[in-house]
């Protein structure tokens, strides 16, 4: 196979990043990912992500799209913009993607996600994924399957044999369970919108050296990663949490939670009381940036909206991370990292008919990085923007770019270790 230019891998993502900076009036020279390897599959293997992708009782599975190079391009862009906005932030794309899996000793589990909460279900027409990471999901499930069950997966598999993927997803989402259809790239089912959309809703203002104040409502991984990047860039961060709904990462991923929240202030405010809501609005009066990962209607019930926040004072930014974007028929769908990745076709294939989960909840770190880049674009351009991030579209973006059509093999060497070769 003829060699291709190593930097061609990141052109797709760099063009998306350039579009974002241009939207706020910035002309930024984004570096190419100079360390991109000729073969995306070998790059995926070298990152460690391949070894948690594939069936538990078989060989690891690679991906033929330049995933690691794309993530590296976003990290490069964050490095450039953070140097303009405050302190330069250097991120290792492999560490961002694989660190949680290493901390929790995840192993590949095929059609079950690395953390065990999400599974593929074969329906009458195609595949879908259902995610049950919360204790409340088991309480909601009877409304989907029609009966109380101890083990949801056999019942969901049986339902899949009787209905289409879209129907089963709709039934799950109707009660607030995260579920997604595996989009078909060939059928044009992937998200039509951009990974990040910048919407002007307020006035810009000349940048100052004052540290921006961030109020963070997000939880789990994507939003806190965005907040972590902005905090390292020099922002003053306050994370707000309702005591009745603590961040699930506190218990589920304590090491990741500590890593992303270290050095930031935590404020506990009851959203259900009038006193708590007054305290919340007082806190927001001093804020320059809001980061949230709630469905649009959730914060609207508290009287909070990007339109109001951004119009009240020039220079502000609002970062919204949702499964499918703030507008459209799926704007209030629930989404987590694994099912959102499936909706964007960010999966691997153990054979032509069998999808397997790709690494660990990839839509989360990818969306967090894209959100951080969008936020830094808005801040560097003087603010006034809603940064609308779709986890599904961000996942789909990572699949674009040149494929490697060479012959590949994954087999054990003489010592019993799996080795990928091109």
How does this model look, in words?
It contains 17 helices and 14 strands. The chain is of the alpha/beta class and 422 residues long. The protein has a seven-stranded mixed β-sheet, with helices on both faces. It has a three-stranded antiparallel β-sheet with strand order 1-2-3, with helices on both faces. Strand 5 (213-216), helix 9 and strand 6 (236-241) form a beta-alpha-beta unit. Helix 15 crosses helix 17 (391-397) and helix 16 packs across helix 17. The termini are close together.
List descriptors.
three-stranded antiparallel beta sheet; alpha/beta; disordered N terminus; seven-stranded mixed beta sheet; globular; single chain; 17 helices; 38% helix
Helices and strands, with pairings:
Blueprint: H1 11-23, H2 40-47, H3 67-85, H4 93-103, E1 118-122, E2 127-131, H5 135-140, H6 142-145, H7 152-160, H8 165-174, E3 178-181, E4 196-200, E5 213-216, H9 222-232, E6 236-241, H10 249-252, H11 254-261, E7 265-268, H12 274-285, E8 289-292, H13 296-300, H14 306-312, E9 317-322, H15 337-343, E10 347-351, E11 354-357, H16 363-380, E12 385-390, H17 391-397, E13 409-412, E14 418-421
Overall form? globular
How many angstroms does the end-to-end distance come to? 10 Å
Structural class: alpha/beta
Read across the widest sheet, the strand sequence of neighbours is: 4-12-9-8-5-6-7
């Amino acid at each position: 196979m003829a060699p291709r230019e190593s930097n061609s891998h990141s052109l797709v993502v760099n063009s998306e990043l350039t579009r974002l900076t241009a939207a706020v009036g910035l002309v930024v020279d984004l570096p190419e990912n100079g360390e991109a390897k000729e073969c995306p599959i070998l790059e995926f293997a070298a990152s460690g992500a391949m070894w948690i992708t594939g069936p538990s009782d078989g060989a690891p599975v690679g991906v033929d799209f330049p995933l690691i190079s794309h993530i590296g391009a976003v990290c490069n862009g964050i490095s450039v913009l953070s140097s303009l906005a405050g302190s330069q932030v250097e991120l290792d794309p492999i560490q961002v993607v694989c660190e949680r899996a290493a901390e929790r000793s995840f192993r590949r589990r095929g059609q079950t996600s690395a953390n065990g909460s999400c599974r593929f279900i074969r329906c009458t027409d195609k595949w879908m994924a259902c995610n049950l990471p919360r204790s409340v999901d088991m309480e909601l499930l009877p409304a989907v399957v029609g009966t109380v069950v101890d083990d949801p997966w056999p019942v969901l598999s049986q339902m899949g044999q009787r209905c289409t993927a879209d129907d089963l997803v709709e039934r799950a989402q109707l009660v607030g369970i995260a579920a997604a259809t595996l989009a078909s790239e060939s059928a044009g089912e992937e998200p039509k919108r951009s990974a990040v959309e910048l919407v002007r809703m307020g006035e810009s203002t000349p940048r100052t050296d004052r540290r921006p104040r961030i109020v963070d409502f997000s939880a789990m991984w994507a939003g806190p990663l965005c907040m972590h990047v902005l905090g390292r860039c020099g922002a003053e961060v306050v994370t707000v949490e309702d005591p009745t709904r603590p961040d699930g990462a506190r218990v589920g991923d304590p090491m990741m939670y500590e890593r992303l929240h270290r050095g930031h202030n935590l404020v506990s405010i009851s959203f259900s009381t009038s006193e708590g809501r007054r305290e919340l609005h007082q806190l927001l009066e001093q804020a320059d940036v809001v980061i949230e990962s709630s469905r649009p209607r959730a914060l609207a019930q508290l009287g909070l909206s990007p339109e109001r926040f951004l119009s009240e004072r020039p220079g502000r930014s609002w970062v919204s991370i949702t499964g499918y974007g703030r507008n459209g028929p799926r704007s209030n769908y629930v989404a987590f990292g694994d099912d959102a990745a499936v909706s964007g076709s960010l999966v691997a294939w153990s054979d032509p008919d069998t999808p397997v989960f790709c690494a660990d909840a990839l839509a989360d770190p990818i969306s967090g990085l894209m959100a951080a880049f969008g936020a830094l674009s808005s801040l560097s351009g003087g603010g006034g923007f809603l940064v609308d991030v779709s986890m599904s579209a961000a996942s789909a973006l990572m699949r674009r770019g040149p494929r490697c059509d060479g012959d590949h093999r994954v087999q054990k060497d003489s010592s019993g270790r799996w080795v990928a070769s091109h």
